[in-house]
Amino acid sequence: MLAHPERTVSQINKGLLLGLRVLGGLLLLGSAGIHAYLYGPDGYRHIPTIGWLFLVQIIVAALLGLAALVLPNRLVAVAGAAFAVATLVGYEIFRLTTLFNFHEVRTTLGFWAGLVESLAFASLGAYATMLPPTDKEAAHTGALASLLKLIANRLSLAVVGIGTVALIVVVALSALPKTTSASTTTSTSVPKGGATLTIQNFAFSPKDFTVTPGETISVTNKDAVTHTFTSVTAGGFDTGLISPGQTVTVKAPTTPGSYPYKCTVHPFMTGTLTVS
Ligand SMILES: [Cu+2]
Predict the structure, then answer these.
(1) pLDDT tens figures, 113-145
(2) How far apart (Å, rounded) are the C-alpha atoms in residues 194 and 248?
(3) Whole-Å CA distances, 189 to 14, 20, 197, 220
């Protein structure tokens, strides 16, 4: 299964096939690397369920990447290309909807991950399509069989080509961060007095706290990902997106009462603000 000595491939094709396979393997390792960065330094490991999904992605992408590097095998290439697309589909699902209390936002890293996965699909897909038939596959001869094979081959190449362009367009449209986002309510000067709230490791600290009516609350995001401090009740306080390292201030409600709040990006991050 590993070697096909009887294959008649020109030296140029051999080089191209090797290049596509190695590139695809390296791109899959790159995808694993980006997800490992998100899992580790970016703190995704703190997110329930999502952390585990990231760990699975890292392991599978790394194994398929290594397999593609060492095995000149069509099945491995197809599996790698399919997994790259599956990762992208997963990203899109989390961006379009909230699952497991998690919603993905557009980030630069998300864009690069999407681009890496699109190109991994392209190179491994092209490799799988261009790899000459094995002896077993070639055994099915006859005019009709070879015609069907030729059509199937052209079709797969077209699917890989069109698919890659479509993937890159989707990634560019959905993952590229909006340039107009956030920074409207940003303030770097923290006013004297008032309450301070810190977000770290996907949690608010203090989680439950009390302020006076209309008091200023400054919220500092110490994580490497974007969060918000948002009243669960509609029309209440909302910091909007707080970038990593940023401090944003909001005014507490003027009516005494209990105000549950959350992060709109990660709804599992909750707490209660008491105004009295
Ligand atoms: Cu958050």
Answers:
(1) 999 999 999 999 999 988 887 777 667 667 777
(2) 13
(3) 61, 52, 15, 11
Distance CA 93, CA 194 (A): 39
Q: What spacing in Å lies between the alpha carbon of 203 and ligand 1's midpoint? A: 8
**Count of CA atoms in the C-beta half-sphere (13 A) of 96:** 10
Distance 266 CA to ligand 1 centre (A): 4
How far is ligand 1, taken at its centre, from the CA of residue 264, in Å?
A: 7
C-beta of residue 168 within 8 angstroms of C-beta of residue 38: no
Instruction: Report residue 17 as tokens.
Output: 């096939």
Using alpha carbons only, how large is the chain's radius of gyration in Å?
A: 25
Q: How far is the centre of ligand 1, averaged over its atoms, from the C-alpha of 269 (Å)?
A: 6
Q: For residue 232, report the distance from its CA to the centre of ligand 1, in Å.
A: 14
Residues with a beta carbon under 5 angstroms from ion ligand 1: 227, 263, 265-266, 269
C-alpha 44 – ligand 1 centre gap (Å): 10
pTM higher than the cut 0.85: no
Alpha-carbon distance of 63 to 153, in angstroms, equals 27
77-99 confidence digits (pLDDT tens):
999 999 999 999 998 888 887 77
